[in-house]
Design a protein that fits this description.
The chain is an alpha/beta fold. Helices cover about 40% and strands about 10% of the residues. It folds into four domains: about 70 residues, no CATH class; about 180 residues, Rossmann fold, CATH 3.40.50; about 60 residues, no CATH class; about 70 residues, no CATH class. It has an eight-stranded mixed sheet with strand order 3-2-1-4-5-6-7-8, with helices on both faces. Strands 9-10 form a two-stranded antiparallel ribbon. It is elongated, with a radius of gyration of 28 Å. The structure holds NADP nicotinamide-adenine-dinucleotide phosphate. The site of NADP nicotinamide-adenine-dinucleotide phosphate (NAP) has 26 residues, from α2, α5 and α10.
Length: about 400
């Protein structure tokens, strides 16, 4: 096991090493009619991906000078143990703490509620007083509070009791908000690493291998002690096999609104429908049930945070409305065509055979009384039953 200071040397001998930089897909959705550009396959591999601009220099990354870092040093050779304080020890804070403890780091925790028992069970030292926790001088403060409470919690922390150089990390599911909050509230000596583990207690319950971990080194001092500390923290996720994706907070939020917010939105909508298991579930239907399961278990506060604190979410909501209407219109347009044909067939009743449609052909059409734009919500509602008639036949 190494201490942070012994890594100073390792880092400087490694200073000429360059890490691979990939260009980020730059196209995002801007309007319902805009061509949808998905991230290229290149962004889905296991190589760290850098997108947008360098957070320290504001230069596009392709022009930014390579930073001296230990990124390329095999994480196993950098076996640094950190003292990490988890602030907000709810569902996600505890989930992360379990793995961090297993990797041999010392974990302290503080939360609004009393989690001393849960903490003890997983080898975490629990503090019911934030002053006491900060006086332990953790090297890393890991904020796992709800999006909505983060500002209040951060402003209430006794920052003056921490060491002058402390690394602040957040795991919020939105990224531009904590980035600007940290830059605004934290003293200049503090380092800032904004992260988003893109998995949760459900999707990550059997391990984190291959799961995406997004991070943005918003402000990490150039001294090796600071870069090493940040890298040692990132090693928690590297060592667990996460797919490390380095990306600016702004890019994260654009991508997340088009993927994560839509996923949660669909999960919540389907939950309202009260989908049930049937004896004839298809694979597609099973995946819908799983989606409901995965999303509805998260707190509503988390979902609301994804909406309120990501400026791109509203646009995605509008797009979903638009898409739903388009599909409905497509269906009803098709239906109108059929009804029109049916009317024509009725007026030419005797000529059906002549017009090329066999009398034996039983063409099923919804009855004209069935209005597809008003789908009643419950299966028990008799109005919901699709009332079919047969063209040129009886039912
Ligand atoms: P959450 O409902 O978003 O947050 C719960 C945490 O926030 C608890 O620690 C809770 O403390 C604290 N909290 C809520 N209101 C508070 C207030 N008014 N004052 C002080 N603390 C308050 O659920 P979560 O799933 O645990 O998520 C935590 C963070 O992780 C969120 O920022 C979320 O975006 C992020 N995240 C979650 C997942 C996931 O799958 N769940 C995945 C990636 C990132 P107490 O329990 O002590 O009340």
């Amino acid at each position: 096991m190494l201490s942070l200071s012994s890594l100073h040397h390792l880092s400087s001998t490694n200073s000429t090493t360059h890490h691979t930089t990939q260009q980020c897909p730059s196209t995002f959705l801007s309007s319902p009619t805009t061509h949808v550009s998905l991230p290229s396959r290149r962004t889905r591999n296991h190589t760290p991906v850098r997108c947008g601009t360098d957070s320290n220099s504001n230069l596009p990354l392709s022009h930014a000078p390579e930073k001296t870092s230990m990124n390329n040093l095999d994480a196993s050779k950098r076996d640094v143990k950190l003292k990490i304080a988890v602030i907000g020890f709810g569902n996600f804070g505890q989930f992360l703490a379990k793995t961090i403890v297993k990797q041999g780091h010392r974990v302290l925790a503080y939360s609004r509620s009393d989690y001393s028992r849960a903490a003890k069970e997983i080898g975490v030292e629990y503090f019911s007083d934030a002053d006491d926790l900060c006086e332990e001088h953790p090297e890393v403060i890991l904020l796992c509070t709800s999006i909505l409470s983060t500002e209040k919690v951060l402003r209430s922390l006794p920052l003056h009791r921490l060491r002058r150089s402390t690394l602040f990390v957040d795991v919020l599911s939105v990224k531009e908000f904590p980035r600007s909050l940290f830059l605004q509230v934290l003293p200049k000596d503090f380092d800032i690493l904004c992260t988003h583990p893109m998995f949760g207690p459900d999707s990550g319950k059997s391990g984190w291998g291959g799961l995406p971990f997004v991070f943005d080194k918003v402000r990490v001092g150039s001294e090796s002690i600071r870069t090493n500390r940040a890298e040692a923290f990132l090693d928690v996720f590297r060592n667990a096999g996460c797919r490390m994706v380095e990306m600016t907070c702004a890019d994260h939020d654009k991508h997340a609104a088009g993927s994560q917010f839509i996923t949660h939105m669909m999960g919540r909508v389907l939950e309202k429908l009260g989908l049930e298991n049937t004896p004839i579930n298809t694979k597609g239907y099973e995946s819908l049930l799983n989606l409901v399961d995965n999303t509805a278990r998260d707190s509503f506060e988390l979902f609301y945070g994804l909406f309120l604190y990501n400026k791109n979410a509203m646009e995605q909501l509008d797009r979903m409305d638009w898409a739903f209407e388009m599909v409905k219109k497509q269906l009803s347009g098709y239906l109108h065509d059929l009804v029109r044909k049916q009317l024509m067939l009725e007026t030419n009743n005797d000529q059906i055979g002549v017009n090329g449609i066999s009398n034996d052909q039983k063409l099923m059409l919804p009855s004209p009384t069935y209005n597809p734009l008003q789908i009643p919500p419950s299966a028990d509602n008799p109005e919901k039953k699709h009332d079919f008639v047969m063209v040129n036949g009886k039912r």
